Structures are given as C-alpha cells and as structure tokens.
Amino acid sequence: MQTAQSLRELFEAAVAMPAPARAAFLDEHCRDAALRARVERMLVADAGGDALFTGGARAAVAAIGDADIVDALPPGTRIGTFELVELLGEGGSSTVFHARREFEGVQQQVALKVLRRGLYAPEAQRQFRRERQALAQLRHPGIARLIEGGVTVDGVAYIALDLVDGKPIVEYAREQRLDLRRRLALFLQVCQAVEAAHRALIVHRDLKPSNVLVTDEGQVKLLDFGIAKLLDSDDETHTGMSAFTPAYAAPEQHASGLITTATDVFALGILLGELVTGQRMSAGSGRTPSSQITGDEAPGVLPAPPPLTRRALRGDLDNIVLKAIDAEPERRYASAGALADDIERMLDGRPVAAHPPSRLYRARKFVQRHRGGVVSSALFLVAILVALALALWQADIARREASRANLVRDFLVRVFDAARAELPRDERPTPEALVEQAQQRLAGNSTLDATTRGDLLRTLGEVSLSLSNFSQADELFTQAQSLAAAQGDAASQSSARVLHADALQHRGRNSEAKQEIEAMLAALRAAPSPVLLRALSVLAASELATGAPDSAITHQREAAAAAESIYGPGNIEAIAVAFEIGNALSSAQRYPEARASLEPLIDRWREIHAPEDQRYVAALTSLATSTDAVGDKPGSEALYRELLASAQRIYKAPHDLIAKAMRNLALIIIRSEKFEEAESLLNQALAMQRQILGDDHQEVAATYAAIGALWVEQRHFAQGDAAFRSAIAICERTGLREEVCPRAHNNLGMSFYRQDRLDEAKAEMTLALTGRRALFGDDHPTVAYSLSTLANVAVKQNDSAEAIKLSGEALAVLERGGRGASHDGALIRNNYASALWHGNRAEDALREIDRTVSDWRRVEPGGKARLVSMLVLKAQIQRDLKRPDDARATALEAVAVGAPASELPPQTKDLLRALSGRSDVFP
Amino acid sequence: MRGKPMKPVPAVNDGTAAQSTGTLFAEVYARLKAMAASQLARTPRGSTLETTALVHELYLRMSENRELLFGHHARFFAYAARAMRHLLADRARDRMRLRAGGEWQRITLTGSDQQLAIDSAEQAIALDTALQRLEATDARAAQVLELHYFAGLTAEQIAETLGIARSTVDRDCRFARVFLKTEIDE
User: Fold this and answer.
1) Could B104 and A72 be called an inter-chain contact, meaning their C-beta atoms sit closer than 8 Å?
2) What's the average model confidence in pLDDT over A302-309?
3) Distance from C-alpha of A278 to C-alpha of A335, rounded to nearest angstrom
4) CB neighbours of B63 closer than 8 A, spacing ≥ 6?
C-alpha cells in the first residue's frame, strides 16, 4: 500500500489532518525512512514562510541585478589572444575596448567588442561562430575588417575589429566645411561599401553617423557591419527585435518585421539628410530635408548658406531622401547602389528616379488599408475624398513650401479622421458634410495664417468640385478669392479666380467661365505656371461645351507647350497636359488626329513607368474610342482589353470601374460576334454591380441594356427584350433621369423594328425621343438618332411623308450642332435621301445622296461596305430618273470600291448585278 | 539547463502538436531575450526587468503579427514561462561569473546588495535544478509553478489557461512550493 502512495499523496493526506494525527498516519503509510523524513520536512516547510517565492521571478531578477560580465574585465585582462588596454565605449548589448596582441611579430591594435551577457549554451555559441565566419569574409576598403572573434571557455563572447582612427561623418563634414558636392561624394563612398556588404548578403542593421567614420585621408570606414545581428546571437528568426538605434531604425525594425537590405537603405536616407542639413531627419513626418533648415545653423553645419542650401536640396535631393526613408520597404530604393545611382544622376543633372509618390498610389494604399469598408459606397467615397486630399497636398508639396503643405495636410487629416472613426454606416458623415465641417473649423481657426487658410479654402473647393458639388465649390473659391484680395496676395487671388471659373464651367455656365479666363489670360501668359495650365484647360472645356472645338484644341496645344516649359519635356505632368489635346480631338470627333496625338504619348507614359492614374486611363479611353471610331476593330478591341486589365490592376474586384471596363469590352466584341465571351463579361459585370451598387442603380440598367444588345444581335429577341425591360424597370422604379433610360427604350424599339412589330417600335422610340429631349434639349445628337430611327419605322410603314419629315428634322438637329458632315451626319443624310426617294422626290434624293457619298468618303475613307450601299441607292435613284447610263456608271463605281463580297448583303449584290448589267460581278 | 537536451514543454490541453516544440521554444526565447536586451538598453544600468510585462508584451506583439503559431494561448504562456526561466538562469550565471572573476570593476551595488545579489543568483540556479526534479515527479505541478512564478499568471489565469479547476491549481502550487523548498534546503 505504501508503495502505491506517492510523495504528493502522502503530503496532501497528512497536511489535511490535524497535526497530532499525522505521526500515526505516517507510521502506517510510510515505512521508508527517507521518504518519511522528506514528508515531514515538507510539512514543516508548508507551515513556514514563503520567502523563496515572494515577488516572483521579478524580485529575483532585481536582487541578482544587471550583471555585466565586462565589469569583471579590468585593463590587462586577457581575452582570447588579446589584452585589454582601455574602455572605449558602451553600447546596448556590448562594450568596446581598445585591445592589443602580438601577432606574427607585430603589435596589433584592435577594437574589441565584448558581449555584456555570457553565452553559456552550446547552440548559442555555435550560432555566434557561424555569423562571425560570414562577417570575416567581408572585405572592402570602406568597411572596418573583422579580425577575429570567439567565445572564451567561461562564456565571454568577443569580436576583434580594425581599430579605425577617424571622425563620425557628420562631424567630419562640419569640421572640413565640405560643400554639397563633396558631402555627396563622401556619401557615395558609404553607399558603395554598404552595397558591397549587401552583395555578400550582410545587412548592417545599425547604420548611424557614429558608425560611419572618415579617416584623415578622407577614406570612409563603416564600423560594426552585421554586428547588431551577431550580438543578438540567439535570434535565428531574422526579425528586427535586435539591437538598433531608435532614431535611425526603419519602421520594420520597430515593428519587428522582416529585416532586409531596405532596412539599411532607410538608415542611409536618414544619414544623408543629416549629412546635408546637420539635423537628424525625423522619419515619418513627411518633412523634406530642405524644410528642416532653420537658418540658425552654426557655420559649417550646412554645405552652404541656408538659402542656398535650401534651394540646392529642394526638388531632387529632397525626393531622394524621402524615397529612401519611405515607411514601406518596397517603396524605397531597391539597394544602396540604386540610391547611389540616383545621387549620381542628380550630380550629372539627369532626371532622378525619385519623385513624390503618385496620387493613385496613395489612393490605392488608402483603399487597401480600408479594404473591409470599400464595398460600402459611403466609406468608399470618404476614402476617395481623403485620397484626393492627400493628392492635393502632394501637388502642394511640389510647388509650395513643404511646411505649409504639412499644415494643410494636418488640418485635413484631422477633419477626415472623424470619418474614419468606427461609426455605424448610417451615422457616418457624407463627404459633403465633411467639407462643410472643415469649412466651419476653418472659420473658427485662428492658428492658421491667412495664406494657409487660403490654401485650405482652395483645397476644400477642389474636393467639392470632385464631388460635383459645384455651388459649394463656387462659394469656397469665392471666399479664397476675397481672402487673397484682402491680403494683397495677387498670385493666390488669380489662382482662386481660375478655380472659380472652373467651378462655373462645371455648373454649365460656360460663357461666364470663358469670359473670366480670357480676362486673366494675358497676365497669366506673362509668367507661365501651373495656374496658367489650369486656366487654359478650363477655357478649352468651356469651348468644347459651346461648340468651338477648334479653339479648344488650340488652347490645349498652348497648355501642352507651357507645361513642357514648366516641367521639362518628357516630364509626367507635361505628358498629362498633352493628353488633353488628344482627349479634345477625340471629343471633337477628329479621330485620326486624336490617335496620332495620343499613341506616342501613351507609349512614352509606359516607357517611363508612370503610374496608371486617372489621367492615363482617360487618355487610353480616348484612344480606344478613336480607334474604334475609325473602324480599326482589332486595334480598338486590344485597347479595350487593356483598359480592363488596367482597371483590374488598379482596383480590387468587385469594383465599379472593373465592371464598366468589362461592359465596354463586351460591347466592342459583340460586333466581332464573340458572343460567348461578351456574355460572360456582361454577366460578371452585372453580378459585380449588383453586389456593390445594389439592384436599382443606373449602371445596372446600363449593363442590362448591353445584355439586351447582345441578345438582339444574335436575333434572340425575346431574351433581348426582357433585358431592355429590366433596364427600363430600374428607370421607372427609381425615377432615374439618365441617358441609359431613353437608350433602353430606343434599343427596345429597334428590336421591335427588326421583328417587324412596327407599332410597338414606334411607341418605344417615341418614349426615347421624349426622354432625350427632356434630358439634353432639342439639339442633342441623340435626339437626331431617335428621329432617325423613327424615320426608319415610317419607311417600313410606307409613310414616306412622315419619313421625310423625321429624317429631315434629324439632319437639321445635327447641322445645328455643327455635325452635319460627320460620320453620323452622313448616315442620317443617307436615310433622308432614301426617304425622299421613297416619297417620289427623286431629284431631291439625288442631291442628298451625292452629298452623303462625298461626306462619307471624306470622314470614313475605310468604310467600303457602307459606301457601296450608298452608291447602290444612288444608282437606283438615277435609274428611276430614267438615266440608265448614269445608273450603270454609278453601279460600276460601287463595284470598283472593292468592298469584300462577304461584307455585302446578298440583296445589295443582286442589285449591283442588275444595275451594272454585268452578271459576272460578285458571282 | 540550456546546455542539456531540452525537455519538451508539456502539452497543454491542446491536440495540435504540429510544430516541433524545439523551434517554437527557440522563437519565444529569442524574442524574449531580444526584448529584454532592448528594454535594458533603454533604461539606466542596474534597473530591472519587468518580467510579467515582458511576457505580456511579447504575447501581444506575436498575436498582433499573426505569428502566433501556437494552437492555443496556453502553449504560448508555457513557452514564455520556460523562456523567462532560462533568462533568469543566464542572468544568475553572469552574476556568479562576476564573483568568480573576483574583481569588481565598478561599484554597482552596495556591500549588502552584493551579498544579496550573489545569494539570489545561487538560489535562482538551485531553483532551476529543483524545478527539473519536480518535473520528473509531477509535471503539471511544475508547470503551474512556472506559469505563476516566471510568467506572472494568477491562479485564475492558470486555471483558465490549463483548463483545470482553480482548486487543483491551488493544490499543485502548494505542493510545488514545499517540494522546491525542501529540495533547495537539502
């Protein structure tokens, strides 16, 4: 029995008894004397105090103290083969001694680093030796050499390094009063040494001025390469929880993320900033080195007097430092070598790779960070708004004092922080409310100076503009304008005035906008600036809207030339302004010119790896439209595919813009009869939109309309009509007044027309016509299309008088809009001629068809099949006018056009054979 | 101690023994050690480690980074307590080495503190050895004590962590204490 009872059982049984009973219990159950003695001692201990455990391990740690083994190492102590001479310094986890030894008959002086904690475990010692061997391989003139290292028998870990006689680099630059170029030359040496180590896969991890020495000969020597890792010898996880110096440490070191060569690039950026300004950069503030110069610097601290230094740093060098110290490792230079290359480019006056992060990049990052919320459209709007504010802030940085830009940003961030708070969706402020809130805060803010307040007013106005809240924008710009006027700040005043004109233009008050800009143009032209560019773009937009495309294009060309002189040829901003020429040409339906203008610019944009931002996407869209309009089917298909791919790269599915790009591509490939792919694209787009936008959205209606077109094109009329009706139902349920609604009616009408259900066709098309007139007024091109389709119905109903009236009206609408001779104008005139002919007005018909043919040849030189059908109509009219010879000649002219037989309907070919009197054509 | 083959930390109520216990322990230990080092580097010499704070900070960091490979937070605390135990033992050895070196380069502690430091270091090493014996006798009692003493968990937290009754924790703790005391006094 007693063997079955363990020490614990015996103790617990005994301790539960009254003390007097215990002896008898143990007599019975515990015959083993040693065991019994132990139980008895335990019973005593249980009754006694608990000093051993009081305070837990914390108290024990405190009592043992921070024992430093180097405290036991006075000068003269031998460590390995070295003898300690004196203490040089102490770091976080190690102590440095000056030490010496006899080595091959020579006195060798070294810096000996001793780990403050002993390494007792064999695996810890092995790890230390492995690392040390890797470092011993590192040989570079710019790096202090590791001579030896090891662990003594009693656990002292040490490494011996070249003893460098030099000064910390920042101190050296100050004492030698180095100018900027020489400071940069020194820094290039640092980069080269770091690059060499990185190639050997060794990361420094603790670069800072005190580790970067310069000898009297001007040779850079880096100390402690990889030592931080070595000293943290148990750390096999390669993460950053090792020794580092907080002020120089990259964010991933603080956050214990992955340590890579980018970590050193970060420290190099901080070092560079300090080397050229004498002040340590504070990372994460977004402040540029040039903005840190106060002007109070002691002599020698700066490479030149403060104003000169500021000017020399502003731009490229600021950007280089900011790129090196980006919070995200992948946004930094890929290597120390790449950083050095960029500095060399700057010294050579070549363009540098560093530029402020693109607006789109910021927007994308913002959306990524808030991915969970992006599906909710309210938060998405806020995200766009904040991204936009950042973009504007960015634009500000490029042209204004960075410190002021920071104030603007900080203010906006404070306002928008409210929106990021974890409010339930329906309690989140709308963007409009945010702008209003910002406006109120601004009114009650006395800490901001007038210039900054003006900046903010303009920024908020821009935000309102982007939200299509034009009256709010108008108000903000007006305030900014009067503030600037009161300050006597002419530059800010004219900038606010241009923005105000922009708001007017957006409100449809085109002629007022035009007048405003024209009044300012001469003054702005005298000193080209981004304000001039904005002014010209507002002017061009109002001209396009008022039917003066030619002067719009002229002004865009002027803007592009000015942008080149401001930003330099080939600069992204300059290209972006040049895109607008192509966009305007495309809007003016001058498609071949638009293509010629856009293609090389888009190529250039890609060559320099400029971001796929909204300006690029807009230009690509214009190019796709133009390519499609000139009848280049494969070309336009490729471009629409690219637009889709681009949207998929930029946004995360499901996304409204991806769905739109899918729908556009589908509409293009329907014409090449790629029905299956189109169907799949449209179904995906529909699912995405219903998920993001809900069932009752105009974009959902537009996709239903596209699905209808897909089915009708395949002559599946029942399915097509159902899809059109779905679109119409959305319009009716939501009271939507958008272009898609009349379009759905019109397309449904066209489907009925093709099914010979003429009365129904007429009813739908009439609804479409009414809708379009209500939406766009009487002179809109879509009104002409509606009239023209109604004329087609009248032709089929043999109501020639009605057909002539309708197509004549359609043509008049286009003529009034200056589009009588356009692609669409020619097609409608063709219908008009046909109606006249059916109405027995052959002479009038002949006149119109002649005009049609000549217009068509001019605007669509490649449109052969259509030209043949026009000529066939002309020949028929001539035949009816009893001019058989002319009819035959026209028919032969049609044959000579050379349209592929496969593109011509059989009926047309029959007519051609009959009219030309030659049975051998189109056999 | 660390030189000997490491004894696996007892599995705690948790069927997933996917990753090798050695790797997990090495990770927790390295992290704790690095954190302890950087905490010491930030504070004046002679100041002490906040062991409980360290363990909890490490837990937060590792779970924040989704690096917590432990099936259950119980396993994390088991490893962390074991790691703290090793840290304490290493520190005690450093202190003993100093005494063996005989020479005190700097006066960092007063005379009575010196004696206390050395006694505490000796005791810490003895405690570590005694704990190893307790593990052989009663592994769970040893773990309860480890969680309490080194990771600073309260009895309630230990009961919850190990999924045992609070009264069991109390009994384990009582036994572990008297076992260790009598072991050390021997």
Assistant:
1) yes
2) 81
3) 24
4) B73
Q: Which residue has the higher pLDDT, A656 or A160?
A: A160
Of B2, B41, B49, the CB nearest to A120: B2
What is the maximal distance between C-alpha atoms in chain A? Answer: 143
Sheet-wide strand order for A212-215: A166-168, A212-215, A220-222
* Spatial distance between the Cα atoms of A89 and A97, rounded to a whole number of angstroms: 7
Distance from CA of A227 to the nearest CA of B (A): 14
Question: Could you tell me whether strands A106-115 and A157-162 are parallel, antiparallel, or unpaired per DSSP bridges?
Answer: antiparallel
Looking at per-residue pLDDT, the higher value among A470 and A437 belongs to A470
Chain A residues whose CB is inside 8 A of the B88 CB are 57, 60-61, 64
Sequence length of chain B is 186
Q: State how far residue B151 is from chain A, nearest Cα, in angstroms.
A: 8
What is the rounded average pLDDT of the residues B113-119?
74
Residue of B nearest to A38 (CA): B182
Q: Of the candidates A45, A73, A120, which has its C-beta nearest B93's C-beta?
A: A120
Residues of chain B numbered 78-137 and touching chain A (CB < 8 Å): 84-85, 88, 90-95, 97-98, 100-106, 108-109, 113, 116-117, 119-121, 123-124, 127, 137
The highest-confidence range among A128-137, A192-201, A766-775, A858-867, by mean pLDDT, is A766-775
Neighbour count for residue A130 (Cβ, 10 Å): 11
Classify residue A831 by its DSSP letter.
Answer: H
Q: What is the DSSP string of A150-185?
A: EE-TTS-EEEEEE---EEEHHHHHHHTT--HHHHHH
Check pLDDT > 50 for residue B8. no
Give A810 or A397, the one with higher predicted confidence: A810
DSSP state of A116: S
Residue of B nearest to A43 (CA): B178
Place of tokens 């000796």: B122
pLDDT of res. A376: 35
Computed over every residue of chain A, the mean pLDDT equals 81
**Residues of A with catalytic roles:** 206
Report, in angstroms and rounded to the nearest whole number, the Rg of chain A calculated over CA atoms: 40
Cβ count within 10 A of residue A488: 8
Alpha-carbon distances of B83 from A55, B6, B51, rounded to whole Å: 18, 12, 11
Buried residues in A544-578 as b, exposed as e (16+ CB within 10 A): bbeebbeebbbbbbbbbebbbebbeeebbbbbbbb
Angstrom distance (rounded) from CA A776 to CA A782:
8
Across the interface, do A74 and B105 touch by the CB < 8 Å criterion?
yes
Judge whether B46 is closer than 8 Å to chain A, CB to CB.
yes
How many whole angstroms separate alpha carbon B120 and alpha carbon B105?
A: 21
Q: Which residues of B touch A38 (CB under 8 A)?
A: 182
Cα–Cα nearest to A621, from A631, A609, A636, A633:
A636
- For residue A268, what pLDDT is reported? 94
CB of B141 within 8 Å of a chain A CB? The answer is: yes
Q: What is the pLDDT of residue B15?
A: 37
Instruction: Check residues A352 and B132 and name the one with the higher pLDDT.
Output: B132
Secondary element (H or E) of residue A257: none
Question: pLDDT digits over A868-891, tens only?
Answer: 999 999 999 999 999 999 999 999
Distance CA(A846)–CA(A881), nearest Å, equals: 9
A159-214, pLDDT tens digit by residue? 888 888 889 999 999 999 898 889 999 999 999 999 888 877 677 878 888 889 99
Max mean pLDDT among A342-346, A450-454, B10-14 falls in A342-346
SS (HEC) of B110-123: CHHHHHHHHHHHHH
Q: What percentage of chain A exceeds 90 in pLDDT?
A: 29
**For residue A387, what pLDDT band results from cuts at 50, 70 and 90?**
low
